[in-house]
Structure formats: C-alpha cells, structure tokens
Amino acid sequence: MPYNRRRSARHPVGFYVDQFVNDELVRCFTTDLSAIGLYMERLVEPIDRASRVIQLEIKLPSTDDSIWAAGEVIYDRIDSLFHGTAVRFTSMARTHQRWIREWLRESERVDRFAVVHPQRQTVRVHRPVRAERATQRAALCA
Questions:
Q1: Which of 36, 48, 49, 38 is closest to 16 using CA atoms?
Q2: Where do the structural domains in the chain lie, given as residue ranges?
Q3: Interval 23-67: pLDDT, tens
Q4: In degrees rounded to 5, what are phi and psi of residue 56?
Q5: Which of 5, 10, 38, 50 is deepest in the core (most CB within 10 A)?
Q6: Burial class, 128, CB count within 10 angstroms (exposed 0-12 / middle 13-18 / buried 19+)
Q7: What is the rounded distance in angstroms from the CA atom of residue 93 to the CA atom of residue 105?
Q8: Phi, psi of 121, rounded to the nearest 5 degrees
Q9: DSSP 8-state class, residue 122
Q10: Could you tell me which of 10, 89, 88, 82 has the C-alpha nearest to residue 41?
C-alpha cells in the first residue's frame, strides 16, 4: 500500500472556486476537496503572489451560501495548459468548516449508493422546462 501523507481523505469534485491573490480575482476549477484543503486548476497565465497565503470563496454545488477561507499554498504544478495549486486551509469560520464536512459526508453517501446500486444514476442533469424544450426542438427542426 503506497504511503499517503495526507491527513484527510480527498474527495473528487468538479466545481469552480474563486481565489483572491493580491486583491485580484482568479477563477479556478476544483478537482478534489477535503476538510482541510483542496486542489484547483486554472489555465496557465502569469500570476504574481506576494505570499503563499490566499483567500478563497467556495460555493459548494447545491448550496446557496459562500464559504470563505484563508489558505496556504502547499505546492504549484504547471504543465503546458494548466496551473494546479494545492491549498491547505489555515483559517475558516467554524460554521463553514461544518458545512464542508457535512457536504463531503453527503457526497460520500451518494457515492456509496452508486456502488451499491450501479444501475441507478446518481448524476443530476439540469433539464430545461417544457417550454424551453419545445423551443429547442423547433429550432432543431427549422
């Protein structure tokens, strides 16, 4: 079994998070999240960080409120297309910590359900309302 230095289980996710670096908004895509940190990617562009501390605004899917956290950049990984950043949370309101833990627990429960019931789909797809579908069909037929 390979050694895992992480202190918290990472959960694969896929949603946007806003990173504030030197008071500048940088939109990133989060690919995994844990109770103590996250990994996010963005297109490779120049970024000038004055320190390793960043501010994050996290909007968890299917929630209305934003989670605010300060984090320390643990490492950066840059390839030809993406700049990936691993962040460990250093400061966050207790309520926001609880929201993340509850959201992760609920997401994990849904994943376990998918393993037990593989024939049932757990992916939620936004379906347009009937009027929108009729308009789309008319546009396709035209």
A1: 38
A2: 11-115
A3: 889 999 999 999 999 999 999 887 777 788 999 999 998 888 899
A4: -125, 140
A5: 38
A6: exposed
A7: 19
A8: -85, 135
A9: -
A10: 82
